[in-house]
Design a protein that fits this description.
The structure holds two protein chains of two kinds. Chain A is mainly α. Helix content of chain A is 44%, strand content 0%. By secondary structure, chain B is of the alpha/beta class. The chains are: A mainly alpha, B alpha/beta.
Chain lengths: 54, 467
């Protein structure tokens, strides 16, 4: 995953030091947690094609 | 006065809804200039609804325990022809042409609407120190925050300006003000109560629920609020109610219940006075017959990360159209939170949702070992207005992060959580606990929370602001 703070700044989102630290902590944490993901699992669980009511 | 007491008095013809409503309106007039709980007071509408409620009762039409009970709504729930601001400048002049489902359901149950209560701007924070509408003040010490984001609702109920109020909870916004203001509150299982007509903060974390004097009252409110709503696809079809507690089954509930006290995380880094009050309460309830077991819970920091990523991205999605064009209309703290969300990559959000499913399975299995988990709500009692950091165990911590780190993870799980008032610090500030239950075990969790509250038999101190 790209560096979050660099990517944000490239998109014109100005971050102060506190925001940068929070983002870095979140990035580190979510990267570590990725080990728990079952990569066979379909992530799009929230999308369903609605059936027409009969 | 609680809903249960008022409801009994109404049926015994000891009081009528008009009298209850007038008493609340008088108290609003007396206290609101000092505490700033209400954004809008709908006095004429309340009087008309109360008169109708009395007429119906006289003619034999009884809508149930909320019939004729004066309540308030958080000002992010849309109300027909009544301004709904979400505590923001963005929606300052928004007057909806419909009622939110929760407002409608409570009206159908006979509740009387007194008005709309203030909140942290866009419900995006815990201080209720609102840059556009002023600070909402804690009735136990007006120089302190009431918590948030449902701060106005909590203050209204704590002071008797309303007998109950609605709140919303995206990362603790019902439980945190319940803790800081000495109230009961309930965050239901996600999908139990419709969010239709609630101005959103984070779609998959937002919950609507009650703030009340007692858990018995929260259960009465949930009975009216819960149920499938075709207008909100996140609501579930199943009916897990009724939720009203059985007041005759307190001893039986205590004998059967198994409450887990976490050995890790929740009681680490918390203020010693807050911890002492909570452990004393647990001890009293154990003496009354409940079984407590110690255990290590699955790492809550994992949940907090998932909640933070989900919250940031969803809040950014809600505010994207406004934050670009009307940045100056946002308070600095809210704009800062939204900017963090805008910076989170899309892939991280998807991974967070995958992790969320996994963590839900882990916590669900963990809750098979006990009926519920008892935790503090906040590691501190109410901080001062404007205070940005707090010292806990010799370390300084951001007040906003400290106030939510023990509660926000539960929103990522979607599990139910009850807030119960359990005592006071030596400085006289209220302390609450959180009971986390099994998904869709809301009725059982409310019964346990009621038994806990009854066994504790806490004598409530009047708020100094009221005396």
């Amino acid at each position: 995953m790209a560096d979050w703070t660099q990517a944000a700044e490239a998109r014109g989102i100005e971050l102060n030091e506190t925001q940068r630290q929070r983002l870095e902590a979140m990035e580190k944490s979510i990267t570590l947690l990725s080990a728990m993901i079952d990569w066979k699992e379909e992530p799009c669980q929230y999308f369903r094609v609605q059936e027409d009511p009969e | 006065m609680t809903i249960a007491e008022a409801s009994a008095a109404l049926r015994a013809r000891q009081v009528c809804s008009v009298e209850l409503t007038e008493a609340c309106l008088q108290r609003i007039e007396q206290l609101n200039p000092k505490l700033n709980a209400f954004m809008t007071v709908t006095a004429d509408l309340a009087r008309a609804q109360a008169a109708r409620a009395d007429g119906e009762l006289r003619s034999g039409r009884d809508r149930g325990p909320l019939h004729g009970i004066p309540i308030a709504h958080k000002d992010l729930l849309c109300t027909l022809n009544v301004r709904t601001t979400s505590g923001s400048r963005i929606f300052t002049d928004y007057v909806p042409d419909f009622d939110a489902t929760s407002v409608d359901r409570l009206a159908q149950a006979g509740a009387v609407m007194l008005g709309k209560t203030g909140l942290h701007e866009h419900a995006c924070g815990v201080t209720s120190d609102n840059p556009h509408f002023g600070s909402i003040r804690n009735p136990y010490d007006p120089e302190r925050i009431p918590g948030g984001s449902s701060g106005g609702s909590a203050v209204a109920v704590a002071t008797g300006m309303a007998l109950a109020a609605t709140g919303s909870d995206t990362g603790g916004s019902i439980r945190v003000p319940a803790h800081y203001c000495g109230l009961a509150g309930f965050k239901p299982t996600y999908g139990l109560v419709s969010k239709y007509g609630a101005l959103p903060l984070a779609f998959s974390l937002d919950h609507i629920g009650p703030l009340t004097q007692t858990i018995e009252d929260s259960a009465l409110m949930l009975d009216a609020l819960a149920g499938h709503d075709p207008k909100d696809p996140s609501t579930v079809q199943r009916d897990a109610g009724p939720y009203a507690v059985n007041t005759d089954a307190v001893q039986e509930t205590l004998r059967q219940v198994r409450i887990l006290l976490p050995r890790n995380f929740y009681f680490e880094n918390i203020d010693t006075d807050v911890k002492r009050v909570i452990l004393l309460a647990a001890q009293s309830v154990e003496t009354a017959g409940a079984t407590f077991v110690m255990g290590a819970v699955p790492e809550p920091n994992q949940l907090n990360t998932v909640a933070n990523v989900t919250f940031g991205v969803e809040a950014a999605a809600v505010h994207e159209p406004y934050i670009r064009k009307r940045r100056s209309d946002y308070g600095a703290d809210v704009a800062s939170v939204i900017d963090i969300g805008r910076a989170i990559p899309g892939a991280a959000y998807v991974q967070a949702q995958r992790l969320r499913t996994r963590l839900q399975q882990v916590w669900r299995m963990f809750l098979d070992k006990s009926d519920c988990i008892l935790t503090p709500i906040c590691p501190i009692a109410a901080p001062h207005i404007g205070q940005t950091t707090v010292g806990i165990g010799g370390q300084m911590e951001d007040v906003r992060i400290a106030s939510t780190r023990l509660v926000r993870g539960v929103n990522a799980l979607g599990f139910p959580a009850a807030a119960i008032h359990v005592g006071y610090t030596p400085a006289g500030l209220p302390v609450g606990i959180q009971l986390i239950g099994r998904p869709f075990g809301d009725a059982r969790l409310l019964q346990i929370a009621h038994a806990f509250e009854t066994a504790l038999a806490l004598e409530k101190r009047p708020c100094p602001a009221v005396v």
